[in-house]
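Fold it.
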Amino acid sequence: MLSFLLAIFVGSFLLFLPISTASGKSVSYMDALFTATTSICVTGLVTLPTVATWSVFGQIVILFMIQIGGLGIMTIMTLILLSMHRKLKLKGRILMQDAFNLNSFSGITTFLKKVILGTFIVEGMGALLYMTVFVPQFGAKGIWISVFNSISAFCNAGIDIMSENSLCDYALNPMVNTVTSLLVILGGMGYIVWWDIIRVTKNFRSQKFKCFSHLTLHSKVALTVTAILLITGTILFMIFEYNNPLTIKELSFFDKLQVSFFQSVTTRTAGFASVPQQNLTNASSLVSLLLMFIGGSPVGTAGGVKTVTISVVLFAALAALRNQENLSLFHRRISKQAISKAVAVIVVAFMIMFISTLLLSAVTDASILDIVYETVSATATVGLTRDLTPSLNFWGKLIIIVTMYLGRVGPISLLVAFNVKKENKNIIKDPIEDISIG
């Protein structure tokens, strides 16, 4: 938590310098702090248009913060140590194990190197594909735009330097839509799933085409839920927006499908918008809120409560309704500790959203839908807004800054940071007594 906080303040100081702005005049410190927070927290909500406000130096600072936020502070610090040929000590291994939710200390350094290498390879390929569109349009500047957009998309940041309306100008461009969607999905899928798929693929022949059955439980759940959410989201957006003249009514069927799929992808904490979010129907906005709250998968660049978390809680609830003592997914039993952890994550995330919504409602007169959209987007580090962010006052900006920070460090980090263990001097446990539930 402190490392993210320190990175935010360092970034805000750099962005506050006159050299960081296109005009050569410093922006207000609150806007610099807001931009630094949304970059480090890979959220994407901005109070000032990125393309018009920041100079090349400012954009480099923002991109560097996005990369740090996407990979994580601990990953970057460990990378620096490894580049200096320093060994990772036990304390560092413990921190990295917690950061990546690994089960053991063994192979942490190798895993970290694979994460960094894989990240740079995917971002590099994304930049090359973007160049086929942006270089012909912007010339040499298109190279920088492609690199920036690739890193921002992979890290699920949703910040771009092409226009002030995000990707609305490219809503019908198949290349931009496809590359952005792939980068967002790969970043949000999680590194553990990457290596698991590669492991299974290497043994493809020996496994007699039953690749899915040889994946770990984590990968099965993450991939299954991701596919269900992407497909369901696309169908629902297509249905609810089909006759909406402000979004996709006048488009061909293919373009309607393309825009609907992108909306389903970007709500998974990416933050790019191919249609103005304030033009969505109320039904589509509610679907977006649900998808934003769930987010991506653990140990990736996405935010939200995560796909695996929501799956565990939902199936635990079903098991309770069926009066089943144990919860099983894909013929594997889930531990009570994992269920309790999942419940804690969702409860804390909901509390952050509720308190943020309550406070923001007290300092702004915007509609409740716009406010909830803003706070859910900030908590889940999505970056989508119904055009409320630019009009926030001082207190509104401060509330969203804190919300983005709490959403990025995550409920588990908050619980661990403020958990003070008291020594139990006796082994006597409190007696059990039944209470009425529901």
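The two ends are 36 Å apart (CA to CA).
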